[in-house]
Amino acid sequence: MSPVPLLVVVGRDLLVQTPGEREPRRFRLSPGGAHEGAELASALLALSRGEPPSRGLGNIAGVLSGLPQGPVRVGDRAARALAEALGLKVEEAPSRGVAAFRESLPPLSWEPDREMLLALAEQALTERLASPEEVVITLSREGDRLDRLVRKESEALRALSATAGAETPVAEYASRAHEHLSALEARRKELERALEETVLLTLPNTSAILGPRTAGRLLSQAGSTSTLLRLGASRIQVIGARRRRPGSPGPRHGVLFGAEGMDRVPPSRRGALARSLASWAVVALRADLLTHGSVGVALVERREQRIVALSRGRGHHARPAPEPPARSSVERAGAPSRLPRPSERRRETSPRDDVPRERPRHDRPGGRRDPRGRDPRWRNRRRR
Amino acid sequence: MSGASRRSFDRSPARREGWAFPFPGLSVARSPPEDRPTFWTRALGNPPEVYGERLRFRDDATWRAIDPTRSKLGAAMCRGLREVPLTPGGKVLYLGGASGTTASHMADLVGRRGGVYVVEKSPRPFQRLLDVAGRWPNLFPILADAHDPRTYLPWVPPVDALYLDIAQPDQVEIALEHARLFLRRGGGLLFALKVPSLRRKEGGAGDPAEQALRGITRVFETAPPLRLEPFHRGHIFITGHYRPE
Fold first, then answer.
1. Where are the beta strands (DSSP E) in chain B?
2. What is the assigned CATH class of domain A203-320?
3. How far is A188 from chain B (nearest CA, A)?
4. Of A23, A259, A351, B169, which residue has the fewest beta carbons closer than 10 angstroms?
């Protein structure tokens, strides 16, 4: 046995194994009455998450008396939270030691407290589903479901009203169905408002750049904020896109198709805007979820510039000349403030700057990477 | 129960066919249309239906068919799993329980005196799991992430078997850590390993599945792994016994 006391929580008890003693000492975490049912469950859950124990969770101070000075080893999160609340120096016990100690306990101390476990599970589920992240996901999925429903219903209704005569039962039924549909639409609007409110609070920067609806969809498609943070821009760009046939060009946009500003660029340039939006979304997501900074305004400005550029001509070639930056002392001495971009470099050496440049080879009809016109399978493909 | 027109339905484990499953709650029937055995567990829960599985009523008991396309354990049985390292009355730690389809069959197998502790991290499937757990007396749901076993250590006793169905890049490490923390010496391992999820090690040589197996066989005495095609793509099923050092 290690010379350091070992603290392990078993069910509702804190067990303390001190090196000299044969039997571990047992401390009830709920002195009955005060903590029962849901209240006990949420207290134990908070402990297991490593939060400091709530007041009155048993006689914790009693543990302190009789413990030798110095560090203690803890087997689990709850024991760690308790020990830290007592002001003890804590180190994590190795897995083998914890397992050996637990197996040395009599099997009776392991009879599962079914009621408590179910209460814990229910409480954990309620807490999790109430977190802003899950609220966004729930509302967003419900919104998408309602959208599909409304679309289907209105389609059916159109078919009905086309066949409806003046005084037939069909007409009566159609008017009833119409009421039903407008009620659905009202519900949809209500939900939209609730969703926007939550998204604006949880993902302020991302909803500035993409719009709250799309930001919510992004999160609901990814499933969780931690998954979303792991994704790069290339993945964000196509998140929510349906799978295509193998061999076809990949998708240009998934849920980003509905992003803010997508409807203001010509269809052929939407892929380009989705690409930019995705990279800004990554920045915005990190600001929202990690640094809690504010980058929305700056990103929206860049988005607007990009939209103007894309709707005017061809991508960054049409970008308005950037404002000259304030000259630094280094620059005044004659050095450039930054390296020229590749595009600028090329332009400097171009012999005929005023003549529009030739389209790159992959973008020419009949070019090497564009078999349109040669291969019948490609004839009606849109240019990407 | 003989007769050419009737399906054979044997309440005792079908030793004749070479299965050595010592479970009173399991029976095997050979159904003629598809030439493979169907496995049935005696339902402990009431109402017994969990996921739309086939039901039969014999001898005051309800038997539920394990659907091999829904359950990796069922698929492994169909693919020729000969020994299940479980014991009736044993305790099982089940990681990645989802909505409780396989977990409910497992609970049937270990019986009333056993217990299945199911860990699931995603809240939406967990809702359904909670519903199943309300009906099964020996099923204990835990909403937690298997990357973090020390959050649920207080609620899970030392166990006799460990079942994993988690498609994570570090699923092997998770299995080993749980074995160290929870599994008794000699306890069973049932591991539905998803090969495409495995992380390819930096500069590691060879097949990631083989690397994973090498890691497992270091502390487990394993049977040859089973491929779960055509029921589940990219999965192999590994069974074994815990023999540390």
1. 8-10, 26-31, 36-42, 55-58, 61-65, 91-95, 115-120, 139-143, 159-164, 183-194, 220-222, 226-227, 235-242
2. mainly alpha
3. 22
4. A351
Rg of chain A on CA atoms, in Å = 32
**Mean pLDDT for each consecutive 10-residue tract of chain A (384 residues)?**
80 84 81 61 82 68 67 90 85 93 85 85 93 94 94 88 73 86 94 95 95 95 92 93 81 91 91 95 95 92 93 57 55 54 52 57 56 53 53
Q: Measured between beta carbons, which residues in chain A are less than 8 angstroms from residue B134? A: 118
B126 vs A75, A98, A125: nearest CB? A125
What is the distance between the alpha carbons of residues A157 and A155, in angstroms, rounded to a whole number?
5
- Residues A90/A62, Cβ–Cβ less than 8 Å: no
The distance of A42 to chain B (nearest Cα, Å) reads 13
Class at the top of the CATH hierarchy for domain B78-242: alpha beta
Q: Which of B144, B154, B184 sits opposite A11 (nearest CB)?
A: B154
Sheet with A25-28, side-by-side order of all strands: A25-28, A13-17, A6-10, A72-74, A90-92
Q: What is the ipTM of this complex?
A: 0.86
- Which residue type sits at B200? R
Geometric angle at alpha carbon B97, from B91 and B99, rounded to 5°: 125
* Residues in chain A closer than 8 A to B90 (CB atoms): none
Q: Domain A6-128: which CATH class?
A: alpha beta
Closest partner residue to B158 (CB to CB) among A49, A102, A129 is A102
